[in-house]
Structure formats: C-alpha cells, structure tokens
C-alpha cells in the first residue's frame, strides 16, 4: 500500500470508527429522542444507570475505541449541521492528562472509570451493601482493605510512574509525527511501545489478606525482565528519572498515577480472598461471582458531581 494511504489510515482510524458507528446508530434512532454517548470501551457498564437517572433520556452508547476516538468523533459530528439538534456527549478517562471538562465531554477526575469503584466510600458501600457487613466486622474488614490498598499503591508506585513516563514520551512523539508532511520519510504515527491494556498487575504482585508484595517492580531492570513481550520495546528511562518524578509527586496525588485497571484488579483479588473467609468464618452468604465486576459493582461505585454538570446542559 502507498505510504501516504497508510499514514491517512492511521491518522483517521479512531475518528472514522466512532463517527461511522454514530451514523449507523443515528439511522436506527432518528425517529425518537435519545442521548448519544460516545465512550472509550466498556464504560457503559458504569455510565448507563447514571446517565439514565440524570438525563431521563434513553442513552445510546457508541464505542469509539479510545480517548482520541471519542474526541475526534465528536468533532466530526459537531461539524455536520445535520446533527446540531441531537443530544450528544462524550465520556473520556483522564489517564495521564490534566483534568479538563468541556461543555460536551466529561472527563474522570481520577485515572479512569475503574478508579471510581476503588475510592474509599465506594469500597465501604460494597462492604456494607454487597457483603452486608456491619458493626465490628465491617470496621475490621474496611481497615484491612485500607491497609492493604495503601501497601498496594506503595508497591506499584515506581512501576506506575515508569508507565507514566513511557506513555508521556510516546504522546510527545505522536504530536511530532502528526506535524510531519505526509510525503516525507517518517509518515507513521507510533503506537505506545508498551501495551498497558494487556497488563494484569496480579501477575506481578502477590496479594494476601495479610500483605501485598511486588518482587520485581522497584527498578527499571526488574520491570523489563518480567516480560519481553510486554516490555521489550519500552523506551530507555533510567531509575533516576523515575525516582525524580516520583519525588515530585505529592503522596496524596499518587493515586492519580495508578491505572484504574490495576485498582479494579486489586479490588477483585481482595474480594475473592475476603468473601470466602467471611462466608466460612461468619456464616455469610455473599456471592463469589466476580466475573464481570464493572457490572456487578456498578451501583456501588462513586458518582462524580461533574457528571450531572456535563450531561444536563447537553440535554436542553
């Protein structure tokens, strides 16, 4: 294939996916009033009930295959006057970017939607309502979770900042490549050199009800040695660079650098460990089915006040 066509395919891949899906949905839904919700992936599991409750308008979710896909698709839709009367809103994860709410795009305050499931008040609600704990048993279980979660954050802090630097450097390269003339030699847009979505943090962190230990996440050499397939193409970043950035981060803000998927993986692992204990030792009858935690625990997750602030004006 001609290099120019390859470049254009890569440049337009995300926005075309979202926009084309919107057009198909629009043809099916044009006879009724709906709220088109542009999302990154499976986030509808979190947003569905909340959007319904806030807007009172049936939501139609469109997976735009990532953050850039949502933004690009929304721009294309807004540029077409045929859709100016439609109710359309985008939902994106903050990831490693600065928090920035716009008139028609909601951005999570934390890393991603999954982070909302792991905030203190969300976990407390899970323990109280899903696990039906109360009194001293509730307090003991909450204190146990909080202690282990704080250890988890500390154990993966170096790794999380290393991931941030990897992605941050790659994003800078993407911007530079997009500025190049498509007729030049370097016409491709680079992908992230590490595939964070393929990482299950439980493979690298031992989690028990007594402790959390990561054996090989405290230096760059340890990280790269874990998996050549996942980390083999990582950019060269020194321990000193990671530690320097880590020291810049206020401890209270470290959570912003922890990937939401890592947090939900930790929460699921904790529940898989604590629920059998509660069932066996305290005669509880808590369901151990956690195959789809984003759906199962959606009602307990934290709801951002900014969500209503974004959705309500769009539906006027």
Question: Helices, strands, pairings?
Answer:
Elements: H1 3-29, E1 35-39, H2 44-55, E2 59-63, H3 67-79, E3 87-92, E4 105-107, H4 113-116, H5 120-130, H6 135-155, H7 157-179, E5 205-207, E6 212-214, H8 220-226, H9 228-231, H10 239-248, H11 260-282, H12 293-296, H13 305-314
Parallel strand pairs: 1-2, 1-3, 3-4
Antiparallel strand pairs: 5-6
Major beta sheet, specifics? 4 strands, parallel
- Supply the number of helical segments: 13
> In total, how many domains does the architecture comprise?
2
Subunit organisation of the chains:
single chain
Label the overall shape.
globular
β content, as a range? 5-15%
Mean pLDDT equals 88
Q: Give the termini distance in whole angstroms.
A: 47 Å
Low-confidence stretches: 1-8, 179-189
Spatial ordering of strands, largest sheet: 2-1-3-4
> Can you count the beta strands?
6
Instruction: Indicate the structural class.
Output: alpha/beta
Radius of gyration: 22 Å
Helix content percent band: 40-55%
Q: Short description, anyone?
A:
Helix content is 53%, strand content 8%. It has 13 helices and 6 strands. The chain has helices spanning 3-29, 44-55, 67-79, 113-116, 120-130, 135-155, 157-179, 220-226, 228-231, 239-248, 260-282, 293-296, 305-314; strands at residues 35-39, 59-63, 87-92, 105-107, 205-207, 212-214.
